[in-house]
Design goal:
Layout: H1 2-10, H2 20-23, H3 40-49, H4 69-75, E1 80-81, H5 89-93, H6 104-124, H7 132-157, E2 160-161, E3 176-177, H8 179-195, H9 210-225, H10 233-249, E4 272-276, H11 288-292, E5 310-311, H12 313-317, E6 332-337, E7 345-353, H13 359-365, E8 372-376, H14 377-392, H15 397-409, H16 420-434, H17 441-448, E9 450-452, E10 459-461, H18 484-487
Antiparallel strand pairs: 1-5, 2-3, 4-8, 6-7, 9-10
Helix pairs in contact: 1-6, 3-6, 3-7, 6-7, 7-8, 8-9, 9-10, 9-14, 10-14, 14-15, 14-16
């Protein structure tokens, strides 16, 4: 299959790294699989290779102006709109997407390229001439990132090929393995292996930390406990324990202001547990700033302002009265001064996303220096609250405290004692509001099988929920189809997911 070629390539391309100092290095050559492992730099390069395809989480769609894989999971929620027909938005708005639609194949390819790089590191690092402690920690990085890539794969596609070794030949027409087996045999074991390492709880250079290992475990267990696998209460308890360990040991803290999250000086600090690394000084810069500027607004130095993703008015109206997150230049904005030499202000037709607004890039450089966050403390607070509430049958004092910390920053009154069901709904709502447009909401919808109806205020069943665009979710929406370009060259990937 085409992915096979990508996996083979992934075994060779190992010069890039998640950390800024590695991003700023100029790669001089490719690292072959038989590189001399007596050189500690080669061992570090193998571990670094596992990070390279994290930027695939924001991979552009070459054939789509303003298209980016980030768009997919925001378009699917029914709570986002777009100014660009070229992004394929209409096919996701009306749920008519299929096996050849934008983004579906790019996600598959990039995630498996990441798996391939991790597999090479896991195979070769045991032979490296480094200390046992360093070797264990570098292996922990590779195992964690392989778990991350596979966690996305199973949530997006369900059953997927199980690839855990470096290919010995090109005969890779592998069948799909059930999602539960991928969790049981790869994702959870990889993370438990990483948890035995001596990785620091926080890593300010952008590498994998114990904070990420435990945050990812919390997310995996929460998902496994719910509708995806129906693992049950024991996994809610495991999720709560993992998230609590991050809160207790990580040294992370909520930023006092939302705008602290769009200050490049705060990358990998404070609230941020793990981010995809970007630097304005290298060619591969974070694309989300121009992607979310209103289309043709004329407010920035960017040659293209896409307006590719922005919130529906119904979603904005669903925030509670007085919520700071919807005030001007918090999570959203409605106007901005036009670029020089103009002096007037451009008022948009509605709210646009401010979460990725790099002010220096907008007014001067057209090169965003922001990272892209995969896990932050607010997410972990809410995972603990949801998981402990399920495991214990009611919210405990810590769960209420963490939710109230998030509400306090939003200038909302604290909550008190609540029933299990009411507290769960509160947590889900805070996840919607706090983590909006961070590629979290779609996964929450398919994990809980519930969708907040922004018009009625009810929690609808996922199957049967009607979006504000008039489209109705069916069971087929729970998984994306295996891309046609993959199944064309590997018939073992068929039958496709239901409905495709």
């Amino acid at each position: 299959m085409k992915t096979t070629k990508h996996i083979i390539l992934a075994l060779l391309v190992l010069f890039a790294c998640s950390c800024k100092k590695f991003l700023e290095q100029k790669p001089t050559n490719f690292l072959p699989p038989d590189a001399d492992l007596s050189d500690p730099k080669v061992a570090r390069a193998l571990a670094n290779g596992s990070y390279q395809y994290l930027q695939g989480f924001l991979q552009g769609q070459p054939s789509s102006y303003g298209g980016n894989v980030y768009n997919l999971m925001e378009f699917m929620t029914g709570k986002a709109n777009s100014d660009l027909g070229q992004t394929g938005f209409a096919t996701f708005q009306n749920l008519s997407y299929n096996t050849t639609s934008f983004y579906v194949d790019t996600w598959w390819q990039r995630l498996y390229m990441g798996v391939g790089a991790c597999n090479l590191a896991i195979e070769k690092l045991p032979q490296a001439a480094v200390s046992d402690a360093d070797k264990t920690n570098m292996l922990a990085e590779a195992h964690t990132l392989r778990a991350l890539y596979y966690f996305h794969l199973v949530r997006l596609y369900g059953a997927v090929p199980k690839v855990t070794e470096v290919p010995k030949d090109l005969n890779l027409n592998l069948p799909r393995t059930a999602a539960k087996a991928i969790y049981d045999e790869i994702i959870i074991p990889d993370l438990l292996t990483a948890a035995k390492s001596t990785l620091p709880w926080a890593d300010r250079t952008g590498k994998v930390s114990m904070g990420l290992v435990q945050s990812l475990l919390a997310d995996v267990y929460l998902t496994y406990a719910g509708a995806a696998i129906n693992g049950g209460n024991q996994y809610y308890a495991l999720s709560a324990a993992a998230s609590k360990s991050v809160i207790a040991n990580g040294g992370y803290f909520l930023f006092p202001e939302y705008t602290n999250m769009i200050n490049p000086n705060n990358k990998n600090l404070g609230e941020f547990i793990f981010q995809v690394q970007y630097a304005a000084s290298v060619p591969s810069i974070n694309p989300l700033t121009p992607l979310t500027i209103p289309n043709y607004a004329g407010i920035s130095k960017y040659s293209d302002e896409y307006g590719s993703v922005y919130p529906t008015p119904q979603f904005i109206a669903s925030f509670p009265a007085g919520d700071k997150r919807v005030q001007e230049r918090q999570f959203f904005y409605t106007k901005y001064k036009k670029k020089e030499p103009a002096t007037d202000t451009f008022t948009f037709k509605g709210r646009y996303i401010y979460k990725w607004f790099d002010s220096l890039a907008v007014v001067s450089t057209a090169k965003s220096d922001l990272n892209y966050t995969l896990y932050r403390l607010a997410d972990v607070y809410l995972m603990y609250a949801e998981a402990s509430n399920r495991a214990e049958g009611a919210p405990n004092a810590d769960a209420i405290k963490y939710v109230n910390a998030i509400r306090a920053r939003a200038k909302l009154a604290p909550i008190g004692a609540m029933s299990q069901a009411n507290f769960e709904h509160e947590v889900w709502l805070q996840r919607y509001f706090e983590l909006c447009f961070e590629n979290k909401m779609w996964f929450d919808m398919i994990r809980t099988r519930k969708v907040h109806n922004d018009v009625t205020g009810n929690w609808d069943d996922f199957v049967g929920h009607k979006t504000v665009f008039g489209a109705t979710f069916a069971a087929k929406q729970l998984l994306f189809p295996v891309p046609k370009q993959e199944s064309d060259v590997n018939p073992n990937l068929l039958p496709n997911n239901p409905g495709f």
